[in-house]
Amino acid sequence: MTQQPVATSTKLDAAVLKVAGVVVLGAIMSILDVTVVSVALPTFQSEFDASYARVAWTMTGYTLALATVIPLSGWAADRFGTKRLYMVALALFTIGSGLCATADSIGELIAWRVVQGLGGGMLMPLGMTIMTRAAGPHRIGRLMAVLGIPMLLGPITGPILGGWLIDVASWHWIFLINLPIGVVALIYAQLALPKDNAEPSQAFDFLGMLMLSPGLALFLYGISTLPETGTIADTKVWLPMLAGGALVVAFVAYSFRPRHPLLDLRLFRNRNLTIASITMFVFIIAFMGAGLLFPSYFLQVRGETTLAAGLLIAPQGIGAMLTMPIAGTLADRVPVGRTVPFALVLIAAGFFTFTQLGTDTSYWLLCGSLFVMGLGMGGTMMPIMTSALKTLSAAEVARGSTLVNILQQIGGSIGAAIMSVILTSELNGSRPIPGVTDPGTGAPLTESQLAIAAQQRPELIQQFPVPPSLIERGLDYAAGAFSTTFWVAFGLVLLTFVPAAFLPRRREPSHLLDGETGEDKQPMALPIH
């Protein structure tokens, strides 16, 4: 019997595009929801009368949930079948979105965001698996270009859409909008995705998951409680930090024992993976942590609407959209040690502008700086991912990708917690106003708290008659608090240059070879949340 030749056309036929449509819908939901929520944090503060450090947990809890399910998704896809699990992830994300819209307290909202994250975290890795199986390895590049569309457009359209929904309706609609999209995606997935059989493979490291996830959550909870207590000596701060830290240390010691650990830390024996992971981890803490503060400054200090804040931070996404495809191409031809430092220079230059924030800093300067930062960001992430995975063997790539992507999510969680704690602590240092208390808590209102509240609700000036000079002084103090927080982020960006200096500066052979074409396959980073 004559063997039929395998088709090697790189064109995407109708069947493959139909499957890609399902994955793109899921990607749009999960990526948009992250960027949509970023402009809603100040709204959550006023709606639930909570500190910035507290409402930042709507992002931190989401990213920790993502980090939990990324390693679970590969095992679960083999155990239960890719199509079935993808539909479960879609349903979980959609249900979580509906529950978020019903939240009556910040605690409820954080809990439902975790449910959302458990579903959203599986959508991207499962979607990439589905697309790879549908198209075959010789069409991966074309498929990644299709999947890259929501990744590039999410940071631009998300804040604008979120701002518009909050302005014309209410914050509930940033979650409710996912319901019709989720229902359509579920029906589409049922009709378009091919059936696959469950093929149980390796055992899942449940013990490792029970140590790492609670350990990180407890440690970050202790950090985020610091502004409320004002001292690390308080039991609410040091006890969860100590317990969380002990669990993480125990996980690190334990992870070298199982044959298939949750995170294969043995891969850090590879120098390139280690250097790239450290560079990315420090960078993510600075960039993602400070990224949550950009819309808050425009909303709280400058008194802009949420729609205006979304439009003002859009230049960052536009910059990343321009350089990301170029950086991916250059990563094939030029060693990352020669390109990433230049991208980091752009990020540092953009960050420096925000260390000089005032109450009347030019919007042209700020938007230009965000655009420059976006250019740098687009030239940083893909090359670092490539460097991390390129010299691993074919058998190690899946575990290496899981390790690097989890470090992304953990870094984003730590960055959000650290920056929100610093900002809240700085704002709490403002002078209290004699005789003026918060109607909800009875605590004395500070100058910065009243000034920020008055920017969003001008009618408060009638409720608390204070001289205009006090409001101006409060806003000046708030701008200084943002500036100080950005100085910390700027310092972390500069620190990123240290491990980046050790990135490969010479071309090295790649083990990521496509078995059918012999061409280099680029690893695809999961979206940063």
In short:
This protein is mainly alpha-helical and 529 residues long. The protein is built from 22 helices and two strands. Strands 1-2 form a two-stranded antiparallel sheet.
Describe the secondary-structure layout.
Elements: H1 14-38, H2 41-48, H3 52-55, H4 57-80, H5 82-101, H6 106-135, H7 140-168, H8 173-176, H9 178-192, H10 206-224, H11 226-229, H12 235-254, H13 271-291, H14 293-300, H15 306-333, H16 340-354, H17 363-378, H18 381-390, H19 394-428, E1 432-437, E2 444-446, H20 447-456, H21 460-463, H22 468-500
Antiparallel strand pairs: 1-2
Helix pairs in contact: 1-6, 1-7, 1-9, 4-5, 4-6, 4-10, 4-19, 5-6, 5-9, 6-7, 7-15, 10-12, 10-19, 13-18, 13-19, 13-22, 14-15, 15-17, 15-18, 16-17, 16-22, 18-19, 19-22, 20-22
Say what oligomer this is: single chain
| Main sheet strand line-up | 1-2
Strand content range: under 5%
Number of strands: 2
Alpha-beta content class:
mainly alpha
Report the total helices: 22
Sheet with the most strands, sense and barrel status:
2 strands, antiparallel
**Gap between N and C termini:** 52 Å
Roughly how much helix do the residues carry, as a percent range?
over 70%
Mean pLDDT, to the nearest integer, reads 79
What is the radius of gyration? 23 Å
Shape: globular
Query: What string gives the helices and strands in order?
Result: HHHHHHHHHHHHHHHHHHHEEHHH
Low-confidence stretches: 1-8, 512-529
Keywords: Cell membrane, Membrane, Transmembrane, Transmembrane helix, Transport
InterPro entries: EmrB-like, MFS, MFS_dom, MFS_trans_sf
Subcellular location: Cell membrane
Pfam families: MFS_1
